[in-house]
Predict the 3D structure of the following.
Amino acid sequence: MAARGAHITPNVEVKPSLFEVLAADSLNVTFYPAIKRVVDFLATAKPTVFGGLVRYYDEFYLLFNSFVQGYYIRRYGGSLAEIFYGLTRTSLRSKTFTTNDRNWSFIVLVLVPYAIRKLEKLCDRWKEDYENGRHVSTNRQLLCRMLPYAKACYESVKLIHYVSYLANVTQTHAPSLRILGLGLTYLPEEEESWSFKDMLHGKVKVAAILSTGLLRCLELSAFFLQFIEWWQTEANIGDLSKLPIPDAPELDANAVKYADVCPICLQKQIIPTALSVSGYVYCYRCIVTHLQSEGRCPVTKYPATVNDLIGIYSGDDE
Ligand SMILES: [Zn+2]
């Protein structure tokens, strides 16, 4: 029985099951929202430090993804998610993984998703413009209308690929891999185990420590994210990023100095009017005259116009 099993095993192991390849695919698409959630959380806690990350999240993720996927493609011949599930990429014809395959894999794994995300955001903006009555060119309108159909088509092609992979008709489960002429196979067992003692004696390469560390972090964070998701649905507490309330910014010397007076005439404000770009409160006449000639906040020098003024109704005005 064991002998028979040993005879069968090598043939079975060449092609991973559909569940394994799908698990790798679904892990791959979790990274973007998972890291986004962490970034949102950090930005809510410390807006001054992490605010920019939210604004340029796509670019930040592109950088992160380029680094991580680039490393895994070069080192192991597959994406991080594929390696995580013990899979690697191989050419369907030559059974190798050439530099050309590496470059194309990088483009499809990193650059194409970035471009699609950007296009979707652009379409959302055009749609908004169109709904608000602004002019949007016919080509752009057509592109916005075609995009959902293109996505639906791609999903259908993917489904057909899954079925044919399951039925052993094709050697690859994803249209993107098929275009590149690549398939997934099991990662050969590599002797990569090392002890803490080896590490202290400098026998282990930094890259090996980093890559093992990254994989362990990934396992932990995957578990952690599932836990958070369960916790959120159980307690129904809404978005995690809304939990902490950031501290109010510290008052600077000017804010204390101009607490009750108009920073321009240094008297109690007549018709108190706040400038929204800086938060300082002036007399209506003082600030309007100043903005018309200078075009910026007298205290902070932030650019401003009369459209940035907000009337304040405190109740004790005459
Ligand atoms: Zn004044």
